[in-house]
Specification:
Largest sheet of chain A: 3 strands, antiparallel
Oligomer: heterodimer
Structural class of chain A: mainly alpha
Helix content of chain A: 55-70%
Number of helices of chain A: 14
Distance between the termini of chain B: 23 Å
Number of domains of chain A: 1
Distance between the termini of chain A: 22 Å
Order of helices and strands of chain B: HHEEHHHHHHHEEHHHHH
């Protein structure tokens, strides 16, 4: 019986105008997304990324002329690799920094009687706001990715498919006719769901296939096994997401005897949860969890640096043993200068890290609040799986910090191997002056496995499942209690 | 007769379920949102005031004039743009394009930084303002109010009944339009008033008379926009014979014009008309700087000196030079001169060098301006023009111009900062500051730095007339579309088959 009704529903849906509209819309958007991605967005990103990486490699090669220099100047800029799955969820990548800098910046010159030393400051991990080249004067817009096509457009379509499923039949009186047969209400409901779900998934799947065909044919993005696995999970999540809106539509539809009223209520729910909540909560949440202001952080950092400077400047401690660039240097001079420079770099590092952590915590908190909206949940899940968005950036920063440690360990262990070195960390003259084999320097690379991606998406996935179940139960209950006339 | 119809329609509308829902949802959305946006405005205002204060402190700490030439991390002179009060209604580019510009004689301002954005990572959350809510929700409500105006009455058979009386069709249509607009403007007016009340509660906000005029204009443009979607619904209703079909067409129009077109144009423009890399312009600028350095070296060579300070023999000498792609600056500090006679030459030298630097900065700006005009600015203009296919984008742009948050007002601000730099350079030249002793040393000069005659930046705000003039074409588009769809609905309804 259930298949009988479902079949009727499917046939009914297929002949409707809204079905044609969905097919055209989804296919057009999916094709457009893929074409834009493979023809301009991704190649441009990759070109800029490889340019950046080449420049970084060159500068690292230059530095590797001496271990001391490499140790002071640091590994150079660390870049975030553009995700090949960015067409699924762009994840506001255009607004997130593309790199962290691990570079020595400016330096100073010290001249006094019988003393001359010029040095660059020791490197530390700096969090810049450089983004991929983009014209920021263009009007504001949302990216055209799957989170837009499915998250926004398809959820809207799901509502258009179900708003009159029950209220419409009630209006024309066929509902009481249907119920006079020996079918249970749950069967009718389930059949209606299956009918709408299958008719809606058909264009979605066609669109996804078209999209993947274009992306795959371009040869730009070679999708390997793990990426196909991620795809599979993404499709399942999309189906789950669409079914949430179908159940919502059925639930509201079962409560009204007039299809235009049920449509109105559904549209308003949709506008609030899909359009407004993800867009207003960001501004609201920043009021709840404050971060220290930029000028305040700058002032505190400066005070700490001044304090260190005072301490070493007192009694001309920095100058009493001579300059580290003397030949041969006094070991005490090396130690004093190493202490001074390292303490300053450490202080900068500490302040910047702490500040960034607070900023990240605020963003994380805001994300939690926006999870009130299923569209936001869906978006975060897709971002985790596609390796884009804020979660990816957070992981990128974590890995950069891990790399910082790895790099320091490498410099120290290389230095230990050289007998001529003074083994004073970290001043240029205190370390080995021998060149370093470029290939032996650890390089920064991000690791992204399906497992970790899936783990990141797990919370969102569970939320979606929970929401779908809740709405399903609510619909069944609501329909059971409603009047068929 | 017209009024009978209008009264009947209004009563029917107001008693309907959709009116109640629309009023409730729209009102609560606007009020909560304006509350949030006002908080955001207060934050921005505070950080603006902090920036002003910090800039004054910076200027107060200046010991030698050459410090004003700094362009890198801590420039001494800054022009800050006050956050626009009406950005509560329309954020525009206010948050994206920055609001703090560094000014120095060696660099012409072209980009703005963001002062006091405490957490730039929050930019990943898109935000929504009054105009966007109106753009998305009110257009939807307008369609929902009008889609069944004719086709539903036909279905129910009441259309035939109404027309069997001595009512001309135009009167009926006009009555439906007036009644529909009257009932739909109720949520709009209520939310406007409620929102203004919420804004007024904030201690930081007080509207000036010109801002009241602007708010009124934004309201009128919103009405024009809502009326357009109402007429589209009416038009579709008069073209179809079943309410459910009208509804589908209306939703299709809405999704296409409100959700898809404004987003797609940007993507398409980025794809079809990309911006060229800035590299060649930067190389050109580099060449100019080399030329500048050569000229300075020639100047010294002609006079047979290697370093201008050789004769004066300063005991302490500190130099730090800044260099960006299109600008440069140099701070110089000398002390403990062994030979005072050498100082006039140093003064003469810096008088020449810094004057030349300012001239070269101007030439550099021409290169950069050419790049900006041909690339990012052209692209933005193209995107704006193409997005005008969608009335939603036209509406947003109009509101942005009226709220002074659009790109045009930002460009005006940047032009003002360049004007300010010209004034500043003139001041430096007129007062012969480049060739003053105070440029490079504090020694032998007793008094504090006298900055009383220094020009100060004052942002000039565009008058309402100017904004209206710029918004004119967009308002005209909305008006013409209104008339077109009204005529469309009118003609379709005249030929409508009522049976």
């Amino acid at each position: 019986m259930i298949w009988h009704i479902a079949k009727r529903e499917i046939l009914d849906n297929l002949t409707r105008f809204r079905f044609a509209l969905t097919v055209v819309l989804v296919m057009a958007l999916m094709v457009m997304n893929a074409v834009l991605f493979v023809s301009s967005q991704y190649p441009r990103r990759i070109a800029e990324y490889s340019q950046d990486i080449n420049a970084a490699t060159e500068s690292m090669k230059e530095r590797s002329a001496s271990l001391g220099e490499l140790g002071v100047k640091g590994p150079g800029d660390l870049y975030k690799k553009p995700s090949p799955l960015a067409f699924i969820a762009t994840g506001a990548d255009a607004k997130l920094p593309k790199r962290v800098t691990a570079n020595a910046s400016s330096g100073s010159n010290w001249t006094a009687s019988n003393f001359h030393y010029s040095h660059s400051n020791n490197w530390w991990l700096e969090y810049t706001q450089d983004v991929f080249q983009k014209n920021d004067a263009l009007p504001n817009f949302t990216e055209l990715d799957w989170t837009f096509i499915i998250g926004l457009v398809m959820s809207f379509m799901a509502i258009l498919f179900t708003y009159d499923a029950i209220s419409g039949e009630r209006e024309v009186g066929t509902l009481s006719l249907l119920m006079s047969n020996s079918v249970s209400r749950a069967t009718v409901l389930l059949a209606k769901f299956i009918g709408a779900f299958l008719t809606l998934m058909l264009p979605v799947l066609i669109g996804i296939l078209l999209n993947l065909m274009i992306v795959n044919a371009s040869k730009l993005v070679s999708l390997d096994g793990s990426e196909w696995l991620r795809f599979g999970i993404i499709v399942v999540i999309s189906a789950l997401y669409i079914s949430i809106f179908l159940w919502l539509g059925l639930c509201i539809s079962s409560q009204f005897s007039n299809s235009s009223s049920s449509l109105l209520v559904l549209l308003l729910i949709w506008v609030v949860f899909v359009v407004l909540i993800p867009n207003t909560m960001g501004a609201l949440a920043s009021g709840f969890q404050q971060v220290p202001s930029r000028s305040e952080v700058f002032r505190l950092k400066q005070a700490k640096l001044d304090e260190i400077h005072e301490r070493y400047w007192k009694d001309r401690k920095l100058f009493q043993f001579g300059s580290p660039s003397d030949n041969p240097p006094n070991i005490e001079a090396l130690r004093t200068w190493a202490g001074y420079l390292t303490e300053r770099a450490d202080a900068k590092s500490r302040f910047d890290d702490a500040h960034l952590d607070k900023q990240f915590a605020q963003v994380g908190f805001t994300q939690q609040i926006t999870r009130l909206s299923p569209a936001a949940i869906y978006k975060y899940a897709l971002e985790s799986l596609a390796g884009t968005g804020f979660a990816r950036h957070e992981r990128f920063v974590q890995q950069a910090r891990r790399y910082r440690k790895q790099f320091v360990d490498f410099i120290q262990s290389e230095d230990r191997a050289d007998n001529e070195s003074y083994h004073v960390y970290l001043v240029k003259e205190g370390l080995s002056q021998k060149p370093v084999a470029f290939s032996s320097i650890p390089k920064f690379s991000e690791k992204l496995t399906v497992g970790s991606a899936f783990k990141g998406a797990l919370l969102d996935l569970m939320l979606l499942v929970l929401l779908a179940l809740l709405l399903f139960m609510a619909t069944v209950l609501a329909f059971m209690r409603s009047d068929v006339k | 007769m017209l009024w009978t119809i209008v009264r009947r329609e209004i009563t029917a509308n107001i008693l309907s379920f959709r009116f109640l829902m629309g009023l409730l949802i729209y009102f609560s959305l606007i009020v909560t949102n304006l509350f949030v946006l006002t908080r955001g405005y207060e934050d921005r205002l505070q950080s603006y005031q902090t920036a002003l204060r910090e800039n004054e402190d910076q200027i107060g700490q200046v010991k030698k004039y050459s410090e004003f030439g700094q362009i890198g991390q801590t420039p001494k002179l800054k022009c800050n743009r006050k956050p626009k009060l009406l950005s509560i209604f329309n954020e525009g580019v206010d948050k994206r394009k920055g609001n703090s510009v560094a000014v120095a004689h060696g660099s012409v301002p072209a980009v703005a930084e963001q002062h006091g954005s405490d957490n730039p990572y929050l930019n990943i959350f898109s935000s929504i303002d009054f105009t966007v809510i109106c753009q998305v929700v009110m257009s939807l409500l307008a369609l929902l109010f009008s889609y069944d105006a004719i086709s539903r009455e036909k279905e129910a058979g009441t259309l035939r009944l109404a027309l069997s009386c001595a009512i001309p069709r135009p009167t009926l249509l006009l009555g439906k339009y007036i009644a529909g607009m009257a009932s739909i403007s109720l949520p709009l007016v209520a939310s406007f008033v409620g929102g203004l009340l919420v804004i007024q509660f904030s201690p930081y906000v007080s509207f000036s008379s010109s801002e009241w005029v602007r708010i009124l204009l934004i309201f009128l443009v919103s009405m024009l926009y809502v009326s357009l979607f109402f007429l589209i619904g009416l038009f579709l209703s008069a073209r179809t014979h079943r309410a459910s079909i009208t509804l589908m067409f209306s939703m299709c129009v809405w999704v296409f014009f409100v959700l898809i077109v404004p987003n797609l144009t940007v993507l398409w423009v980025e794809h079809a008309s990309p911006i060229r890399s800035e590299r060649s312009s930067k190389t050109q600028a580099d060449e100019l700087w080399t030329e500048f350095r050569t000229k300075v070296a020639e100047y010294l060579k002609e006079r047979g000196v290697e370093n201008p300070w050789d004769h004066a023999k300063p005991g302490g000498l500190g130099r730090s030079s800044d260099r960006s792609s299109y600008g440069s600056g140099e701070i110089i500090e000398m002390s403990r001169f062994a030979n005072e006679d050498g100082i006039p030459f140093i003064q003469e030298f810096y008088g020449f060098k810094e004057n030349l630097r300012a001239q070269y900065a101007d030439r550099m700006w021409q290169i950069r301006k050419a790049y900006l005009d041909e690339n990012p600015n052209r692209q933005s203009l193209l995107a704006l023009n193409i997005s005008r296919i969608s009335p939603a984008a036209v509406y947003y742009n109009t509101a942005a111009i009226l709220a002074e948050t659009d790109l045009g007002s930002f460009y005006q601000f940047m032009e003002q900062t360049r004007q300010y730099r010209r004034e500043w350079v003139e001041y430096l030249r007129d007062e012969k500051i480049f060739s003053s002793r105070r440029w490079f040393t504090e020694e032998g000069v007793q008094r504090d730095l006298d900055l009383s005659g220094m020009p100060r930046f004052k942002e000039q705000s565009e008058g309402v007339g100017g904004s209206l003039q710029r918004a004119g074409p967009d308002i005209l588009i909305l008006a013409v579309l209104n008339i077109l769809f009204f005529m469309g609905a009118f003609i379709s309804f005249l030929r409508y088959d009522v049976i």
